[in-house]
């Protein structure tokens, strides 16, 4: 049993970490978020240069053929550095394109993305978040060789800067049925696609998207109703691992920042970190982080070994969400008033963790599914 | 034990309802719905205070000679229930639960005459200058100096976490007038007649929720007459402690908590649960909601128990307990709010949250309010003496020396 | 609004407290529990002498006509003093007899009890505890003028020393239906009644009771199927208030004992009560106690005013159960190893609180019912 | 990252299964089911240890030259899984995870030769004499004295919370040999060859669950050869700290937690929920059970992560974290056990809980075990360094000086 990163992975983490330290301090991030919703073409290009867009795409699709361990290795660093670039939101769309039956348009979009071009936005979420792909409800109908999409998707991050959207929809069956789900590639400016874009609490740009009789040619259907659910799972499983890695990175940063603050900040003539109540709270933060991180690492190793069931992913996602909120709440409390302001990074890490908990299904649904069946 | 019930109380309820029917305007209800803090939107909260003051109901608990309503506890409950039912915004506590009661207790006759009418009517709004950058939990270490200059003091220094200072036209604050002896000595309590005094600057602080609620206030030789002192020079700490009694657990947390709980219930009854139903029908949600409601009610009952003359009325730990229990209950409530909102809580909708905004919420009002309220409410366990400080105070009383 | 005890109630509390302080220290209690399952005829007689058995029985049934406030006033003292006598377990049976249509036998049993005779055991619980009377499932059939009882009851406290049992059963309808429940008085040694008795964790004697075609004459049917559920509620509502008062009394005692221990016990050369982690834990215990107590007092005042709905009682019961477990767990933790032993009273208070939480319906069911409907 | 899987591992599993098929007797399974503590019933636990020792599997993690099995982490997991599946009792940690590894590391060659065989085979059982009435969390303040007398020490004093001392035939303990200097100095680590030495008395302590698990041990001039000392005189504190490493988070908490979780699931699937169904189908219960299971798995993974060479393997806070997390997870689990048992957890069934009892449980085995286990498990956050002490240790590592 080996649960360590390889030397190559460690090097990649180090070089990404150093790059972000040099080029992406908190004030830079603040400026990028304020100016352009978290996306700076220069930083995006640099990340692509490091191979991060191509990292886990298959080699025959212009990728580097990296593993989920590679993905987790870099995503943890991005979370720790609070990267607002839509690398993670672009991941499932790219993976769906890479593993689905993409035609020429799709292949071109993917190749462009891999080289640092526009992200492929993933238009999948509905309602208050889908706890599993089988819950997709937005409808699609077949007409001739085409697919007609009608309905709405919520919280599509980076849709504004994407050239394409990967969209999940249902041609048959009721929400909950694995069969009947299709996945399609849609140009972001295709007729009938309307974006309602907004800032998100965690410094990104999201959009609710309406599809009104949007026509998708057969070549752009990435998976039909027999394969749609599997394709979504294939795209989402690495994404959830990366998302959890990002969150674990953020938690680790919060533990460090908070412990440092407790050592430096004085009240009553002594560091606040000398008060047992705060010491214990910080100890709890450290435990929550370690617990989440070990769950991440072992689950990642299982995924790498092909032994990670949907239940294992649910458990990871739900635990990281729960621990993340705990750690974020404690970080603010230990910081006191200053932790409540927009000035410090603490609140921004916290909101990133909250956003990650909300997406891809509320923790309560995942926990219940775990509790319902061993 | 005895609870007042029956016809007289119902007659009073009818009177309240008639008054509310005649006076509540849509912007007040909108302000109530868009309250993402313990502090309601300023303009509407003050307008509503003015309307109530005109009726003699702005500060029902004050002594009647100063404008109180002379209500029984049950009447106060009825009034709170009816306001809660309409979703009216809470009044801001600064005037009515802080500086007003303090001046009634400790102000000079001149101060009472000069300030109480504006405090009650809402013509004035008072902000509170206590915390400083290095004096938060350790408030007594404050260093904002007031130097004697004839009949005046000259104030130089800085305050922080001054809620709504950018809306205020008056301020009460603690300053250091002596550096001798224990740090609690040498503090003086002052009143500022204006926020536009020469040398005074207000800078807004943006919070986690994206709103400016707190401010920094800078003083550069700001001149204040000594007649504006409450209590003796260097005795401001005991004045502040007197005031803290009102601040911590002084008012009933029940109505605000119940109003948010009702909103949570209604939202859960509309919100899809991701499994084809609505969240309100999920037994797991019901169990946790039931636990939360039980806590809301227990906190409310603890207040009532004290008000009804029971043991908590004589318990020196009561204010700290109420502060701790009510802040943590509101935090638990806010956590369930973002749970119900789910993804819909993630868009940042600062514009739509303004009272009178042209744009509506992306999904609905509850979803729009949930995240800012959750984030803002993190402060409840920090301000007015952090909950760590409160637990220290409680332990000091409970554990024999 | 007045939420204080009257002078008479304060006097009664004081005299009971003083009696128990003089005659019922922890070692005496230990001996009574070990020798006879918590029941000592002399103490029982003394309690009766103080009017505690007759306290809330109607004056026309030999009682003192006391209110629920009286009940709560004395029960809190009993909990604080860890009284193992089956005063509380005997309460619902006596109340059912007092408010039901008891015949001569019932009237005699009640009169005897009121004067310090045998308790009337309440054979009502089934399964893992009934969250409401309407869940009664044990069957009864009518035959001629008689009622025939068949089935089992669980956790009947003081059955061994009772002369009579008050038994709930169902003649029609499914569990959950309010209609169809009867309440009957049965001699403990009636043919077909079998006791399987045991010690309980909280120092009492319980029994599981089997009823095999037990015949009940019409005169001993206290309530028929239209009135059974109401009679049970009439018996249980004051009992639940008293039970919660007892638990609140126990919690208060635990807070005091634990705070005292923290002040006295030294480690690292200082009282353990100087460590902030333990100080805060004790502050939490004190808050839990106060929260439970205020819920008790206000609910009692509402009951006295005739304005206490079943939902209010559920809320009280569930809160007291939850807070009780919290306080008990913390008391043991603060005491450390010595808190884990049978030697100190701490563990006995704790187990009393656990037993009270388990009876009359698990907290989770009460909380859910509260959450399900406003 | 790499997990071993595949045929070789499955062949090993078959070997384990064959061994268990041949050697597991009903009383062992009964002892497993009637384990209401981290400590299994003594007689069966030791018999099972003997059976495993004969096969070379009693202490798989020991160095192979001392009787270890040389298993990979994955093999150890397979063995644990198969034992868990049959509900076998856990082995007692005193011999195998405490004094054995300690002597391997720090014992003299003579001590190793003399003691290790009996430690491994289970012929001997060693109890641990650490705590004293006034030295619990503050262990270093211990006062049980050992006075030099030629080649021997004479021990006088008292130990407390000595688990299974009434079953033990040997003891390792800390004594004070000097009162000079810091309290951590002057402590010596000794081995007792017998519990029947003149002057030694064992008194059982009854626990909340009604069972004697802990003991007091009294020493009145008990004679011990100096050759029975581990480490140097007055250097026992560093010996004890070395041992603590094994005690805190040394073994995997996974198997025991998973076994109890499985029992909880099975019981919930049988237990009426008071509303006409079974508890296992209650979504609220499912949600909480899911959270508990997630915690059980996270704790288990934290252990695996360390064992797999990841960051926790090098984290000085790891032992304290494992101790805290595993103890609090077992407490949460025990709380759900009494919730499922409900009223059926209230009868006190000490007789039926004995292995080989004539009487069965009043309802079923799970209900009988739930309350004693819940009560006993309160100790998990107290012994081996209270969780308050563990959090202090973690904070000392996490917060910069």
Automatic annotation (TrEMBL), chains A, C:
Keyword Oxidoreductase: yes
UniProt keyword annotation of Flavoprotein present: yes
InterPro entries membership: Acyl-CoA_Oxase/DH_mid-dom, Acyl-CoA_Oxase/DH_mid-dom_sf, AcylCo_DH-like_C, AcylCo_DH/oxidase_C, AcylCoA_DH/ox_N, AcylCoA_DH/ox_N_sf, AcylCoA_DH/oxidase_NM_dom_sf
UniProt domain Acyl-CoA oxidase/dehydrogenase middle: residue ranges: 126-209
Acyl-CoA dehydrogenase/oxidase N-terminal domain segment(s): 6-81
Coiled coil: none
Key words of the record: FAD, Flavoprotein, Oxidoreductase
Cofactor: FAD
SUPFAM superfamilies xrefs: Acyl-CoA dehydrogenase C-terminal domain-like, Acyl-CoA dehydrogenase NM domain-like
Gene Ontology terms for molecular function: acyl-CoA dehydrogenase activity; flavin adenine dinucleotide binding
Pfam families from the UniProt entry: Acyl-CoA_dh_1, Acyl-CoA_dh_M, Acyl-CoA_dh_N
Acyl-CoA dehydrogenase/oxidase C-terminal domain boundaries: 227-372
Family: Belongs to the acyl-CoA dehydrogenase family.
Protein name: Acyl-CoA dehydrogenase
Protein species of origin: Albimonas donghaensis
UniProtKB/TrEMBL annotation, chains B, D:
One Gene Ontology molecular-function label: flavin adenine dinucleotide binding
Identification of the protein by name: Acyl-CoA dehydrogenase
Domain spans labelled Acyl-CoA dehydrogenase/oxidase N-terminal: 7-123
Cofactor(s) in the UniProt record: FAD
Keyword terms, alphabetized: FAD, Flavoprotein, Oxidoreductase
Ranges for domain Acyl-CoA dehydrogenase/oxidase C-terminal: 234-398
Signal peptide from the UniProt entry: none
Native organism taxonomy: Bacteria, Pseudomonadati, Pseudomonadota, Alphaproteobacteria, Rhodobacterales
């Amino acid at each position: 049993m080996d649960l360590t990163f390889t030397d190559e992975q460690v090097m990649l983490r180090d070089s990404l970490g150093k790059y972000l330290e040099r080029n992406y301090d908190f004030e830079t991030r603040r400026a990028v978020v304020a100016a352009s919703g978290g996306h700076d073409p220069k930083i995006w290009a640099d990340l692509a240069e490091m191979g991060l867009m191509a990292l886990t795409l298959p080699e025959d699709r212009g990728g580097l053929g990296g593993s989920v361990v590679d993905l987790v290795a870099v995503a943890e660093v991005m979370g720790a550095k609070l990267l607002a670039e839509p690398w993670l939101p672009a991941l499932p769309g790219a993976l769906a394109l890479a593993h689905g039956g993409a035609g020429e348009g799709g292949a071109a979009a993917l190749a462009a993305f891999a080289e640092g071009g526009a992200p492929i936005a993933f238009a999948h979420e509905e309602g208050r978040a889908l706890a599993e792909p089988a819950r997709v409800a937005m409808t699609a109908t077949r007409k001739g060789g085409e697919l007609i999409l009608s309905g709405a998707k919520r919280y599509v991050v980076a849709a504004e800067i994407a050239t394409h959207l990967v969209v999940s929809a249902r041609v048959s069956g009721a929400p909950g049925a694995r069969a009947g789900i299709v996945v399609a590639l849609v140009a972001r400016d295709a007729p009938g696609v309307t974006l309602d874009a907004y800032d998100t609490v965690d410094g990104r740009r999201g959009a609710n998207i309406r599809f009104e009789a949007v026509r998708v040619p057969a070549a752009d259907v990435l998976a039909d109703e027999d394969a749609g659910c599997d394709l979504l799972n294939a795209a989402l499983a690495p994404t959830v691992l990366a998302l959890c890695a990002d969150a674990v990175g953020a938690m680790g940063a919060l533990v460090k920042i908070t412990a440092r603050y407790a050592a430096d900040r004085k009240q009553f003539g002594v560091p606040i970190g000398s008060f047992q109540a705060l010491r214990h709270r910080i100890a709890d933060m450290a435990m929550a982080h370690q617990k989440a991180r070990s769950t991440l690492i072992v689950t990642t190793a299982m995924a790498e070994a092909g032994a990670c069931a949907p239940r294992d992913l649910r458990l990871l996602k739900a635990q990281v969400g729960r621990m993340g909120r705990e750690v974020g709440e404690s970080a603010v409390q230990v910081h006191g008033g200053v932790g409540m302001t927009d000035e410090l990074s603490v609140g921004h890490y916290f909101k990133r963790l909250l956003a990650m908990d909300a997406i891809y299904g509320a923790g309560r649904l995942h926990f219940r599914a775990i509790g319902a069946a061993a | 034990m005895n609870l007042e019930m029956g016809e007289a109380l119902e007659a009073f309820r009818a009177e309240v309802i008639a008054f509310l029917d005649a006076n509540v305007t849509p912007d007040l209800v909108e302000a109530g719905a868009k309250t993402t803090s313990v502090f309601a939107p300023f303009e509407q909260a003050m307008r509503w205070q003015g309307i109530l003051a005109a009726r003699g109901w702005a500060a029902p608990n004050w002594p009647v000679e100063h404008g109180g309503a002379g209500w029984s506890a049950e009447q106060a409950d009825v009034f709170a229930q009816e306001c809660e039912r309409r979703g009216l915004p809470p009044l801001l506590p600064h005037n009515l639960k802080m500086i007003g009661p303090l001046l009634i207790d400790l102000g000079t006759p001149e101060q009472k005459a000069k300030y109480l009418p504006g405090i009650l009517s809402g013509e004035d709004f008072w902000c509170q200058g206590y915390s400083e950058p290095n004096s938060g939990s350790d408030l007594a270490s404050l260093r904002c100096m007031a130097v004697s200059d004839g009949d005046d003091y000259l104030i130089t220094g800085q305050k922080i976490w001054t809620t709504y200072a950018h809306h205020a036209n008056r301020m009460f604050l603690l300053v250091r007038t002596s550096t001798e002896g224990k740090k609690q000595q040498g503090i003086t309590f002052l009143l500022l007649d204006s926020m536009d005094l020469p040398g005074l600057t207000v800078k807004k602080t943006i919070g986690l929720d994206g709103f400016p609620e707190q401010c920094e206030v800078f003083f550069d030789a700001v001149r204040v007459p000594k007649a504006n002192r409450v209590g003796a020079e260097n005795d401001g700490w005991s004045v502040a402690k007197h005031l803290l009694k009102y601040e911590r657990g002084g008012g009933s947390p029940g109505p605000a908590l119940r109003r948010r709980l009702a909103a949570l219930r209604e939202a859960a009854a509309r919100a899809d649960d991701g499994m084809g139903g609505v969240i309100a029908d999920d037994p797991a949600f019901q169990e946790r909601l039931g636990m939360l409601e039980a806590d809301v009610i227990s906190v409310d009952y603890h207040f009532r128990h004290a008000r009804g003359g029971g043991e908590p009325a004589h318990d020196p730990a009561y204010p700290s307990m109420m502060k701790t229990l009510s802040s943590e209950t509101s935090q638990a409530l806010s956590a369930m709010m973002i749970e119900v909102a789910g993804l819909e809580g993630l868009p940042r909708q600062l514009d739509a949250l303004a009272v009178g905004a042209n744009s509506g919420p992306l999904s609905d009002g509850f979803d729009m309010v949930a995240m800012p309220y959750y984030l803002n409410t993190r402060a409840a366990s920090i301000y007015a003496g952090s909950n760590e400080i409160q637990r220290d105070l409680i332990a000091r009383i409970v554990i024999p020396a």
